[in-house]
Amino acid sequence: GTMAKDEVGNGEAERHTHVNVVKVVEIVRAKKANSKMAIAFVGYFIFLSLYVAVVVLQREAWNSETTYAAVKSYLTGQFRDPKTYDYKDFMNVASVEEWWNWMEVFFIDNAYVGQQTNFEDYKPLDMNTMLRYNRLTSGVVLVQRRGKEEQCNVGDEKYLQFMPKCQQRTYAEGLINPSKESFKGSDGVTEYKYEEREVGLPGSGNFDVGFFQNLDYDGDTAADQMAELRKQRWINEGTQWARAGFVVYNPNIGTFCAVQFKTDFDLAGTIQMKMEIEILLATNYTTWTDNIRMVLEIIFVILWFFNVASVIVTAVKEARIQQNSFAYFTSSGFNMLFALQLFLMLVATAVWANIVVDPSRTNITVTPEAILDKAGNPPNFSSVILLYQGYFIISGIIVLLGTFRILGFLRVNQNLSMLTDTLALMVAEFLQFAVVLIILTAAFMLMTHIYFGSTTNKFATPEAAFINTFEYLNGQADFFSLNEMDVVGAPIFYYTFIFIMIFVVLNITIAIIMDGYTLMQERKEKMASGYLKEVADLSAITQAKHGMLRMLAPCKGMMPAKWRVIKCLNGAILDRFAAPTKDEVLELLEPIMDPQHHVVSFETVKRKLRDMQTTPERLESIFDRFDAWEEPAYDLKVSADTRLDDAMKKVKQQIYSVLADQKRVESKIDMLLSHFAK
Question: Are 112 and 219 in contact (CB under 8 A)?
């Protein structure tokens, strides 16, 4: 495992009388910076990978996705409309009458399962079990939120005699500007009151609000209640938002599945329905996988504290050196990204802590018949669902920021940093062009909103128009569908959009990217033609191999001999672990480096370093390692004036030599002519 002495330096090393000190220092500085960046990259990659592993385990995407797909497929099937006999599903509901038909004919019948596949009644402990393993925890809960009634303000009072009453619009699922006034059913007696139901433990401060209706756990009774609500016109002109929801429990994977069908009743008369399904763990940290995740979470928190402490220490040092409190953050965009990422990780950790201690799952009463909260109502997980959604949104942003930071670390190798360098070189020009791009996109967005917004929901709102206009940049514009909406506006928009945005703007954007790529290639070629050719040409695999060998230096005695060999370009053979380190090279050569004179004699180097604890053989190995033996004529970085003076001197010498030869020839010719003249 050790190298024999005759294996080191037994090559035919080619050396000259002079050495290039500046070349060695530049290469070693670049390699040292890359080594420092590589170490930071490995540490950051481990840190980010740990965070991603924790989030993946918390998400439990496989169980969530399979449950989601099963429940969605089960509850979004078609039903036959009892009036028109057409097949419809909940996404095709277009009127209040169809909404009630869907609720009575399809929803209640599928949510409440009373019989097995052989038409035998379920036993009490198996009652209302859908998809074999998902049992309804309690009855379905209906809730609606209503708008305030007011006298119509149409500008002309003559229309008030035709329809005098209007509804104020509510926002954010009816939570903003709702009506809290009780209303009566069609019989004029039955009254429905606004409620604020506390979610979780009493005093938690989390409320779900609206006009609630709890359907019974028995399917037949629930169907009768639904029929009575329809008879009483529980959904009427004041309703602007409604939700039908229930929770099922699956013991196989230990999860609750909260299913919510939400309906927006727009003031224009349209109905928009959507389904939301969220999978929640019934308990935390009970299985062995939960315990593994908890250990990883603890390790992540510890590493987070170490990273925060490191950032603080570094930021304080740079602030003192540069006399600027924000020097660390302004010196590099990647430092800013890392600080933002650490802050978002703190926010995500706080949100997850709230999820773990959320009382919604602990403040429940379990009986053989049902699972209810302490107040006797069906379990409500709306608060923890919002926390889950917010947590994973923040986690996605953290991963995105981590990807950008990893791109920054890829500068450790010139072959890996092509994308990073291209983006860095094009960003200034692209940001300036982005102003034009935003103006044009906004203009075409407004055109689509004006021309087609009244006939399709794709352009009915400015935000929807912006999204669909942006999609048109990918070539998804369909002239014929636009022409059906507006025969005049379609060609005006379509042809100008295609010409300006596709033919011109898109190609300018590509040209800007290509300019950045070209600059990146020029920089790399310039680097490869100078002293840093060794750094520029180093492959990522070789660089990683060298890094691994340095990490395994304590085990060098057990390594194969060939792993320790460095074969230099001049023929010398060195021991990787016996050769001078980067710090040693810089300690020796930086004090004697002269930027004006790159090439000096080796004897001069030895004389300047005679007081240093080194040997001539060790100095030779440094210049062997970096192929820095040169003759004075090969000094490539002397000043331009010096090179010009040398060239002029050589030209003058050549001219003088030619003139002297010419005179000698002329004198000989004169002698010959005089000889023949005699």
Answer: yes
The tens digit of pLDDT for each residue in 388-403 reads 889 999 999 999 999 9
Please name which of 64, 62, 59, 75 lies closest in space to residue 255, comparing C-alpha atoms.
Answer: 64
Beta bridge partners of 249: 135, 256
Q: Are 397 and 344 in contact (CB under 8 A)?
A: yes
**Residue 277, CA distances (Å) to 5, 55, 94, 261 in order:** 71, 19, 22, 9
Identity at 73, one-letter amino acid code: S
Beta strands 629-630; 599-601: pairing state: unpaired
DSSP letter at 557 equals G
Give pLDDT tens digits for 610-629.
888 888 899 999 999 999 99
Q: Give Dmax over CA atoms of the chain in angstroms.
A: 154
User: 3-state DSSP call for residue 600?
Assistant: strand
Q: What are phi and psi of 240, to 5 degrees?
A: -120, -15
Query: What are 386's two structure tokens?
Result: 């919002």
Q: For residues 198 and 202, give the distance between their C-alpha atoms in angstroms, rounded to a whole number.
A: 7
- The token duo for 544 is 């990683």
Residues facing residue 475 across a β-bridge: none
DSSP reduced 3-state for 274: strand
Task: Measure the CA–CA gap between 24 and 592, rounded to whole angstroms.
Answer: 12
pLDDT of residue 131: 87
pLDDT recorded at residue 10: 46
Measured CA distances, 418 to 35, 44, 413, 514 (Å)? 19, 21, 9, 12
